[in-house]
Amino acid sequence: MKHYQIKKILLLLAISCFWATSLFASDTVRVVIEETVIDQDTLLFVYGFAEGVEPWQTLSITLTDEKEAIIEQTPMINKLGNWAVEALDISGFADGSIAITAVVKNDRGHIVAQTDSNTILDTNFSLIGFLNQHFALSIFLLMIVLLLLGFPMKIPLIAGATLGIYLLYDGDLSQTQFMIQQMMAGIRPAALIAVPMFILSADIMTRGKSAEKLIDLVMAFVGHIKGGLAVSTAGACAVFGAVSGSTQATVVAIGAPLRPRLLEGGYKDSFILALIVNSSDIAFLIPPSIGMIIYGIVAKASIPELFIAGIGPGLLILLLFSIYSVIYAIVNDIPTQPKTSWKKRGMAVYHALWPLGFPVIIIGGIFGGIFSPTEAAAVSVAYAIILEGFLFRTMKLSDFYATALSTGLVTAVVFILVGAGAAFAWVLSYAQVPQHILGMIGIAQMGQHGVLFVISIAFFVGCMFVDPIVVILILVPIFAPVVNNVGLDPVLVGTIITLQCAIGSATPPFGCDIFTAIAIFKRPYIEVVKGTPPFILILLSVAVALAFFPEIALFLRDVAFR
């Protein structure tokens, strides 16, 4: 009797263990379908994971359309439990719902885990689907069409960002809140305060006598040499660039008074216009440079270091332009101007001392660590008001009001561009457009010089068509990760980008400085661009020299900040 009871107990224990083991196994085996994607209307991708699957158990995926056509697949499960069915041809399936079943079976064919999902196949043409498949091309085509229709640049930027949001969120325009957030974030950096203040100080000096006194100073010392008038023009652009930081302000302030003198001196108008337009590029490099401020904010680079790094390339361009001007004067037998007496030179220096205080305040203050670029901008505005309002007495209170109004309008345009550019750059980044573009170029396999070459071409070509600020806002975030990966100095890259933007803005077909010159001098487009090729070649040669000899830009930076 005892033996019988023991056998009974052992039998019950064995049955319980078997039942518990099978129950435990069924609980720990799990299969999940995570993602289903249909690409190009014919290729299906299914991704998922499985847990607790033993080697003798198998996973099978069954797909069934509404007409009961069936496709079965047996994907492998990797060590992490992930599985995938990739690029499965479903061209034979009918439009409608596709049922997806994932099943794990044991060696006896019994189901130990199962899950179901579905997706929708729709091979009919969909405009949104087509635009999504060609995301970047759709946005850029919209922007080009709007530009050709004559809309200002801010409209194509905002429209491109809005279309991107619409496509990214499947037509849900309520998500444009993200675009508004990015626009506000784009104009939030404190360093941007320097931009309107530098614009205001440049506008005050342009309306006053500062520009004229700087021109007289340069003319007094180099006006008598062969090609002296042209050299004086380039020199005046460099000096005024150290005051204004704006290429267009330099074209207005220096070009307007010097063009008549150059015409009287025997220079061809095509050479004069090209000299003025391209010499204004020096203003984009010599601090304070508005382009460098925008780059420094977007790339999170040191703006004071960028300012100092721009001095070397700016002076090199001035030297090369002066050499070319002398050669041009010799070849074309341009007559020389009378030599200025030392007394008149002394008077020119005396009258120009106060305007020369601008570069001393800006460069010296930043170089000496006395104040930041934003503080330097504020000081330059106060200095301009004191100079033109109290010392020279060339401006009344009503003139300052008109100048402030003009600056406000320009600043509004700049800040709208900055905000719209930030939103547009965010949309491109969110959609991973930069990664696709850079992958197509193969930039990841390039060295430092290859990366600099691609960056130079991109910014040069971009600024031939679009405002430099917009190009910086869009392209800098695209190239920033690559610059960091190859170990390039962001200050060097910023200097090269600023130079390329300056070159592009003075290069046909749509460089913004060209149209500024057309508006100011009222000359036809062909005449303005006719004499530009030699100057563009000089500027491009400086850009190449910067890539191979970075010390041109970084020497003064290292002296000041290292």
Label this structure with key terms.
alpha+beta; 10% strand; three-stranded antiparallel sheet
Give an account of the 3D structure.
By secondary structure, this protein is α+β, with helices and mostly antiparallel strands. The chain has 26 helices and seven strands. The strands form two sheets. The protein has a four-stranded antiparallel sheet with strand order 4-3-6-7, with no helix packed on it. Helix 3 runs antiparallel to helix 4.
Average of pLDDT: 84
Report the biggest beta sheet as strand number plus sense, adding barrel if it closes.
Answer: 4 strands, antiparallel
Number of helices: 26
| Structural class by secondary-structure content | alpha+beta
Distance between the termini: 98 Å
Strand content: 5-15%
Weakly predicted, low-confidence segments:
18-26
Strand order of the largest sheet: 4-3-6-7
The number of strands is 7
Taking all Cα atoms into account, the compactness measure Rg is 34 Å
Overall geometric form = elongated
Helix content: 55-70%
